[in-house]
């Protein structure tokens, strides 16, 4: 979904990993590091690619002016369980590296040369008011000019991503940045 419009669906995909791969292939993304990421990072990375598909932040902002505020309910538990299952044999450093939820922010920052403030919060459910307050503080205090914010969560076969791009300067297709708009987009089916 992009601004409430469905861009892609794949009802035949079995499991989150296969669905994420089909999204990657559908949009013809070319980022070899994608294949090494855990499912949380893949989901967040794909959501950010779709969010920024028509925008190159590097053209409009300095890297330090762009930041991120993300949240989820399950932290990196999806990958933590995978890592735990490798401990009895040979623990995998490639799996271990994704045992922090903020790694998804790192992957998105590396891809887009984002170097501003960033935070990752663990909450029981999406809280648009909380995200709105965090982002508004960063923008109102001139800490950032632009912020990618929202929700990225994966646990087993359950997943949800809803990202928002908030800028001080409105674009032609901008919507007001309010908790109500965030909730409406978050609750749109398949966001």
**Alpha-beta classification:** alpha/beta
Low-confidence stretches: none
Strand order in the largest sheet: 2-1-3-4
Major sheet: 4 strands, mixed
Anisotropy-based shape: globular
Q: How many strands appear in the DSSP assignment?
A: 4
Question: How confident overall, as mean pLDDT?
Answer: 91
**What is the string of SSEs from the N terminus onward?**
HHHEHHHEHEEH
Q: What is the CA-based Rg, rounded?
A: 16 Å
Helix segment tally: 8
Q: Percent of residues in beta strands?
A: 15-25%
What percent of the residues sit in helical stretches (DSSP H or I)?
25-40%
Terminal residue distance: 5 Å
Mind explaining what this structure looks like?
This protein has 191 residues and is α/β, with parallel strands linked by helices. 38% of the residues lie in helices and 17% in strands. The chain is built from eight helices and four strands. It has helices at 16-26, 39-51, 57-60, 77-86, 93-96, 103-112, 128-140, 179-186; strands spanning 66-72, 118-122, 146-155, 158-167. It has a four-stranded mixed sheet with strand order 2-1-3-4, sandwiched between helices. Helix 7 (128-140) packs across helix 8 (179-186). It starts with 15 loop residues before the first helix and ends in a 5-residue tail after the last helix.
């Amino acid at each position: 979904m992009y601004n409430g419009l469905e861009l892609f669906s794949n009802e035949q995909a079995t499991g989150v990993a296969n669905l994420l791969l089909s999204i990657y292939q559908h949009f013809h993304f070319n980022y070899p590091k994608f294949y090494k990421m855990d499912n949380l990072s893949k989901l967040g990375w794909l959501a950010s690619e779709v969010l920024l598909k028509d925008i190159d932040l590097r053209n409009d902002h300095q890297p330090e002016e762009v930041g991120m505020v993300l949240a989820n309910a399950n932290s990196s538990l999806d990958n933590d369980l995978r890592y735990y299952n490798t401990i009895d044999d040979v623990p995998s450093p490639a799996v271990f590296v994704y045992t922090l939820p903020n790694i998804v922010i790192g992957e998105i920052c590396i891809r887009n040369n984002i170097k501003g403030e960033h935070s990752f919060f663990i909450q029981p459910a999406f809280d648009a008011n909380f995200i709105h307050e965090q982002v508004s503080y960063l923008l109102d205090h001139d800490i950032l000019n632009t912020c990618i914010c929202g929700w990225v969560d994966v646990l087993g076969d359950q997943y949800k991503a809803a990202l928002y791009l908030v800028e001080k300067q409105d674009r032609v297709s901008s919507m007001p940045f309010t908790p109500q708009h965030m909730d409406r987009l978050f609750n749109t089916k398949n966001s």
